[in-house]
């Protein structure tokens, strides 16, 4: 299975507006459209999203293009979106999300998950089996594409970080 991990497009929160569940800006909507166009030829078996508006809005153009519904995974939410979380709690949640996705979609070819920059750092680490603390971070630009590939190599399960934070679909913005 290839797990595509996407950070949402630019949101009102990214430009300094203080709102509880910020929506995408006009630029964020364009980023989401360009991402959908970039990924249009990859058939996704599942499109997963955080319950927060900006992640759902980012997933929507791809969902509509592929006529594949968005499945909300409540534990994909941003760090601290529903109260304070200690680092250990976030790491455990990320590990549980990866386990849930692998259990439910492990026989699928391509799964895409739309979430948030801070959470995605832990999500990517958990998917790759990295157990380090805060001393190592994966950069997550708006609509940056990260692909974690779960493969069998010579009969052994392996994890391969195929792509990290690729935003080439935004080059002409």
Task: Give the structure's gist in a few sentences.
It contains 4 helices and 6 strands. The chain has helices at 26-39, 53-66, 87-105, 117-128; strands spanning 2-7, 46-49, 70-72, 110-115, 145-153, 156-166.
Shape: globular
Span of the ends, CA to CA: 31 Å
Radius of gyration: 15 Å
Helix content, binned percent: 25-40%
What name goes with the CATH superfamily?
Answer: Phosphoglycerate mutase-like
- The overall pLDDT, averaged over residues, is 95
CATH architecture classification: 3-Layer(aba) Sandwich
DSSP strand count: 6
Largest sheet: 6 strands, mixed
Which CATH class is shown?
A: Alpha Beta
- N-to-C SSE string, H for helix and E for strand: EHEHEHEHEE
Tally of separate domains = 1
Strand content: 15-25%
Number of helices: 4
CATH topology, which one? Rossmann fold
By secondary-structure content and strand pairing, the structural class works out as alpha/beta
Unreliable parts: none
Strands ordered across the widest β-sheet = 3-2-4-1-5-6
List strands and helices in order, with pairings:
Layout: E1 2-7, H1 26-39, E2 46-49, H2 53-66, E3 70-72, H3 87-105, E4 110-115, H4 117-128, E5 145-153, E6 156-166
Parallel strand pairs: 1-4, 2-3, 2-4
Antiparallel strand pairs: 1-5, 5-6
Helix pairs in contact: 1-2, 3-4
């Amino acid at each position: 299975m290839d797990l595509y991990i996407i950070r949402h497009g630019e949101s009102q929160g990214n430009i300094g507006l203080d709102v509880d569940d910020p929506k995408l800006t006009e630029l964020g909507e364009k980023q989401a459209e360009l991402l959908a166009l970039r990924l249009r030829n990859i058939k996704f078996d599942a499109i997963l999203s955080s319950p927060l508006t900006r992640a759902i809005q980012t997933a929507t153009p791809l969902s509509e293009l592929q006529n594949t519904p968005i499945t909300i995974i409540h534990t994909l939410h941003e760090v601290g979106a529903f109260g304070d979380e200690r680092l250990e709690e976030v790491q455990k949640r990320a590990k549980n999300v990866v386990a849930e996705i692998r259990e439910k979609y492990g026989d699928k070819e391509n799964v895409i998950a739309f979430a948030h920059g801070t959470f995605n750092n832990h999500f990517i680490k958990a998917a790759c089996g990295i157990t380090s603390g805060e001393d190592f971070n994966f950069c997550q630009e708006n609509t940056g594409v990260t692909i974690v590939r779960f493969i069998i190599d010579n009969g052994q399960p392996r994890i391969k970080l195929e792509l990290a934070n690729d935003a080439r679909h935004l080059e002409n913005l």
